[in-house]
Amino acid sequence: MNYLKFLLLVLLGTTFLITSCKDDEVVCTETTWYEDADGDNLGNPDVSQTACDQPEGYVADNTDTDDTGTSTATGATPVSAFDEFNSDAVTISFDGDEITIESNALLNHTSPYWDEDNVLYIDPVVANEQQMSPGKINEGSYTVTVPTIPEIAAASSATGLGAIGIAISGAPIFNDEEGPNVQLSENVASGFDYAGGHMGPTGYHYHLEAADVEENTLLSQDDEKLVGILQDGFLLYGRKCNSTGAYPTDLDESGGHNSSTQHSDGDEFYHYHIINEFYTGSYIVLFGVDLKGTPSPIM
After folding, report:
1. Which of 59, 114, 171, 233 has the greatest count of CB atoms below 10 A from its CB?
2. Three-class secondary structure of residue 269 per DSSP
3. 169 plus 78 within the same structural domain
4. Which element (helix H / strand E) includes 249?
């Protein structure tokens, strides 16, 4: 009899332990995950699997209409941004899914690189006269056609010598090189005017962010102003972000990110910022990295 009681107690205890273990188990809630073949954090709605934990190469989003890895749409360039461009120098034309920007390069701010008879001529403010390059600002011709909805390409593209963009003033934007495989130096930069520009074989152009001087009333200097548009169709803004009022902390290797700007009415789109880093000495370059989109030639 005692043996039967003992056996019964053992069976009851085992049942209690099994029940307790089951009560402690974590309930698995399965989620549908979508394949992200191109790594843009947008999933392919046609390829999915369910799992409790996120599988490698899958995301919860299912809005990617092109998951092939060739390119990623980033939103249309806000039309109001083009109101910032100097209308005396720059003409903007819209044709379906393309935008053409044409400039005569006659910028609208003062500079010691103007002829002394020009009303925009001023004596050098920050430029070392001994290091100023020869030549005077004159009329040029720069034209680029870019998509209204530029896309991030599968691979970034290095910029070349010559114009890589057109600034709001109408002057071309150059990269961080002064010649083939010759990086900008403090010595050369010391001859730039307060706008961060100087003369070259093809005319006046910018390399650097404008200086913080009272003569600078138009160009971005440690702020969120629009600088211009680059040859892949993405806009370039100053060092600060309009959506936060501060330096952005989520920039990619090209100084770009998705956010709203003063021109997009709350809509987010991909654009560049001047990277908040000194390039050489006290100088900050406008754009010295690779383009994220597909560059169009500037003629």
Report:
1. 171
2. strand
3. yes
4. none
